[in-house]
Specification:
The mean pLDDT is 97. The longest helix has 17 residues. Helix content is 59%, strand content 0%. The protein is built from eleven helices and no strands. It is an all-alpha fold.
């Protein structure tokens, strides 16, 4: 296991030093537990965590929207028009309940949906279903991210430097922010060597 410093973590994730300091030990613990231990695995994991958590600054999906029109555009499955979205503008708790039954994206890889909270609870021995906000705390944000990475078998494509497949396994077929993930991977490789 390549034990990296806070400075290396900040560089690898392009995160502010304070954020890297907050997540340094929790990330090392989770990565050790789930065999994210080679240079390629660590670089791919940290690049993915960086993009998913806005540089270690947001361990929880923001559901605060001011504009009902924008809400209706982003979530057409939930809102037929802007008028239907009005009660959920400036109401992140209500929007979380409507869209995700309060199991919206939390943690450094955005654990989402009740079933994934249940699976993480079973695997890790913490009650994330009864206390979903626990996933947004540093220890659990990092631990659930490392668990999800392992569960999605991301070490295999990471060993090959295949950020496209890593992204598909973490984020789905839309391959959101793929270019950013690939660039962050190169940054992480340099920072960790």
């Amino acid at each position: 296991m390549n034990l990296f410093s806070v400075e290396q973590l900040a560089s690898a994730t392009s995160a502010p030093y304070g954020n890297a300091q907050t997540y340094h030990q929790p990330l090392l613990d989770g990565m050790t537990r789930f065999n994210i231990d080679s240079l390629q695995r660590q670089a791919a994991f940290l690049a993915t965590v960086s993009v998913e958590s806005a540089r270690l600054s947001s361990p929880e999906e923001s559901l605060y929207y001011k504009d009902p029109d924008r809400l209706a555009r982003i979530y057409p499955r939930a809102f037929k028009n802007a008028a239907a979205a009005v009660p959920y503008a400036r109401n992140p708790q209500g929007l979380s309940e409507l869209l995700y039954k309060n199991y919206h994206g939390r943690g450094l890889l955005g654990l989402t949906w009740r079933r994934n909270y249940e699976r993480a609870s079973e695997a890790l021995g913490f009650d994330y279903v009864g206390n979903p906000t626990l996933v947004a705390t540093p220890k659990h944000a990092a631990l659930t991210a490392a668990w999800y990475w392992h569960d999605a078998k991301c070490n295999e494509p990471a060993d090959k430097g295949d950020m496209t497949e890593v992204t598909r396994r973490v984020n789905g077929p839309a391959l959101m922010h793929l270019a950013e993930r690939k660039a962050q991977y190169e940054t992480a490789l340099k920072a960790l060597t």
